[in-house]
Amino acid sequence: MEKEQECHGMPTIGEHAPAFEAQTTNGKINFPEDFKGKWVILFSHPSDFTPVCTSEFVTFGHMQKEFENLNCQLIGLSIDGLASHIAWLRTIEEKIDFKGMKNVEVRFPLIDDVSMHVAKLYGMLQPSASETKAVRAVFFIDPKGIVRAVIYYPLSLGRNFDEIKRVLIGLQTIDEFGVSLPADWRPGDEVMVPAPQTCDAARERMADDSVKHDDWFFSLRELPKDKVEEKLYEKVK
Asked: Is 72 a catalytic residue?
């Protein structure tokens, strides 16, 4: 039972991200302390030198600057050692051409987790999928070290990077503007005004001409794309 809990336990949304120290391809890190004030996407992949993982790292590497411009640090992990990581990243840069992305230098840290300590701490090792490989987990961690979203993918399915970036931008928009976001939201779409909590607030809401009402609990307002981008990207100026 203890072993099962260790493998399946995972931090949930709203909790503090579990702390750890680890060696990476960029040196030692103390997580999340070293990344205070930044958003972090901490993600795992099953193994170095595998095809799906390679396609993902080419894509993550190609998009590094886009995430950095959103005040977000990428951190990768697999249950492989530093020598394997370094050799694999060199192979990606020197040999791999995926969808026209080639000569991609992966500059973000990749964690050495041969001990499986971090993978178990974050519920990345799931015996029903594999005893020795981490599933494709993605943790979105805010500047205060709080887990804000979690996405899991099976070993054989590559991640959707448009969605990963959309989730990051969405979380930042929620924090900056105090709104909720409807299905399929993207910057420039209408946002949802939180439902009122009292009868008086509901009456005031219905009288507000700047808000589009379908009913007292379902209200939308405009939030221009340029306003979202101005607020989010000023964080890295």
From this structure: no
